[in-house]
Amino acid sequence: MYGMVSHEIEVNVAASEAWKLYGTLQLAKIVGEGGLPDLITKVDVVQGDGGVGTILHLFFTSGMMISSYKEKYTVVDDEKRVKEAEVVEGGYLDLGFTLYRVRFEIIEKEDEENKCITKSTIEYEVKEEAAAAANASSLVSIQPMVAIMNLAAHYLIQNHNNNNNNRGF
C-alpha cells in the first residue's frame, strides 16, 4: 500500500533565506535542542555534514508510537531547494513500512521576493499484511512536519526581523 500526505505554509522571508535553514543541519539543530519538546527530545548527527548521505538519529517523546529512528538524506538540491530523507533504521520500518520518506521544499513566490512557501510531503509504502494489521495509514501524520515547519517559520521570521533591526531599519 502506497500513500502520500503533504502540507504547505507561507512564510514572510525570501526562499533563499528559508533554504539556508532547511538546506543545512541548522533545522535539525533547532529541533534537537528542544524546539519541539512535546514531539522530539533529541536529534543526533550520526554521520555527515548535512549533504546527501547524512544520517540523523531522532528520538521522540515517551507516549509516541515510535521511540526513535535513523534517517538518511537522499536528496539535497540547492538549486531546486529540495531535501529528502528516508528512514533507514527503526521507527516505521519496525512497523512494517518498506518506505518512509520526508521531503521539504522551499518554493519561491512569484512577484513577492520576501515570501516563500515551505512544503512538506511524506511518502510511504507499507506491506499489505502490516497495513491491515496496524491500520498503517492512521500511523502516518503530517502534523509533526507541520510543527517543524511552524517552528522553522517562527525562527526565520524572528531572525529576519533581528537582522533587519541590527542594520538600523
Automatic annotation (TrEMBL):
Cross-referenced CDD domains, in alphabetical order? Bet_v1-like
Instruction: Fetch the Gene3D superfamilies from UniProt.
Output: 3.30.530.20
One biological process term from GO is: defense response
Q: Which UniProt keywords apply?
A: Alkaloid metabolism
Entries under Pfam families matching the protein: Bet_v_1
GO cellular component, alphabetical, reads:
cytoplasm; nucleus
Chain ranges of the Bet v I/Major latex protein domain:
5-134
Which Gene Ontology molecular-function terms are recorded? abscisic acid binding; protein phosphatase inhibitor activity; signaling receptor activity
Superkingdom, natural source: Eukaryota
Q: Which family does it belong to?
A: Belongs to the BetVI family.
Q: Can you say what this protein is called?
A: Bet v I/Major latex protein domain-containing protein
